[in-house]
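PROTEIN FOLDING TASK:
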Amino acid sequence: MLELLRTRARYGYDFIKAIAELAGGEYSPSAGVIYPTLASLQQTGHATLAQDSGGKKLYAITPQGTAFLESQRDALLRAHARLASAALVADARHAPQLQRSMQNFNTALHLRLSRGPLQPEDLRRLAEAIDRAAIDIERS
């Protein structure tokens, strides 16, 4: 979050959008994560409240926050790598071929489940088919 503040002052909701964008939509932090973190950054002197108008708080990085961020360069690189990895997953997940295949799977499963109650043997066969598909996907 300090890295995002280094680029410009931000409102709490801006962090949610920016982090979700960095992760390609694969991860989006909740307000329950963002606002306590901002409060902690204020308490440690790494961020300050630049403006408070009508309940919207604009946060900015402090010189102390910039120095701390510089001292944590390795951790920042690891965080960027995790977000980039999530973005790659999101890009792949949105491939039309995978979207079609996942929709086909969901439809087939829904149709099978809607035919009525499943017997234990039916549940076992369905679970085995799903497990086989998962293993095939993992191995490919």
Observations:
- The mean pLDDT is 92.
- The chain has two domains: 2-93, 96-139.
- The CA atoms of residues 69 and 75 lie 9 Å apart.
